[in-house]
Amino acid sequence: MFSLLSGLWQWLLQKEERRMVLLGVDNAGKTTTLEKLKSLFGLKGMPPERIPPTIGFNIGRIQIDKVIAVFWDLGGHSSFRSVWHNYYSEVQGVMFIVDSADPTRIEEAKATLVEVISHDKLQGVPLLCLANKQDKPEALSIQELSRLFEFERLFSERPFHVHPCCALQGQGLEAGVRWLLAEADKFARSQSNLQK
Ligand code: G3D
């Protein structure tokens, strides 16, 4: 009887886990986003002035309502991008960060994004594009970014959302991540139904 009750209790407390990769070219703001997300959801994030450039990768586990969201921030430098695909089969969501205020790297960011979404293992996986650094006066608007990235053409076959944010201050992050988590959850459930 005790083991039955204890099993039931553990089942009630058990939290589902959803895994997501945080991608984007270097300097887009991935690590700042991860650290800010940790502090928005009750963990101790690192202050922006102490964030070192990402060598290798960072992991963040955040509890959002009853779900544990695990974020893998894979380094964005071109030498790290070749290993991103090793993580694709494990994830239920992609968060792609763009520096909206750096027009010189938009083409590189777009080419990187196209390569990511073309990968077999990411077919149908929901994608959130965060248009970061919206606090900067020169930041491109969502409309301008959508035109340059051709989002409408690229994302007809998966859940996709582009959201403005300022990772430094945190604006826009919570709404964006909640959208992604809800879609990642739907995706995970559809995958587990397929396996039954
Ligand atoms: P990365 O992990 O994608 O390589 P980082 O990028 O998170 O290391 O951020 C790169 C730089 O962009 C950092 O500045 C960081 O403070 C800045 N940054 C990140 N998000 C924002 C934002 O929303 N607004 C502004 N204005 N800056 C941002 P430094 O000076 O440390 O290189």
UniProtKB/TrEMBL annotation:
Keywords: GTP-binding, Magnesium, Metal-binding, Nucleotide-binding. It comes from the Eukaryota. GO terms for cellular component: Golgi apparatus. GO terms for biological process: Golgi to plasma membrane protein transport; intracellular protein transport; protein localization to Golgi apparatus. GO terms for molecular function: GTP binding; GTPase activity; metal ion binding. GTP binds at residues 24-31, 76, 132-135. InterPro entries: P-loop_NTPase, Small_GTP-bd, Small_GTPase_ARF, Small_GTPase_ARF/SAR. SMART domains: ARF, SAR. Mg(2+) binds at residues 31, 54. Belongs to the small GTPase superfamily. Arf family. This is Arfrp1 protein. It comes from Symbiodinium natans. The lineage of its organism: Eukaryota, Sar, Alveolata, Dinophyceae, Suessiales.
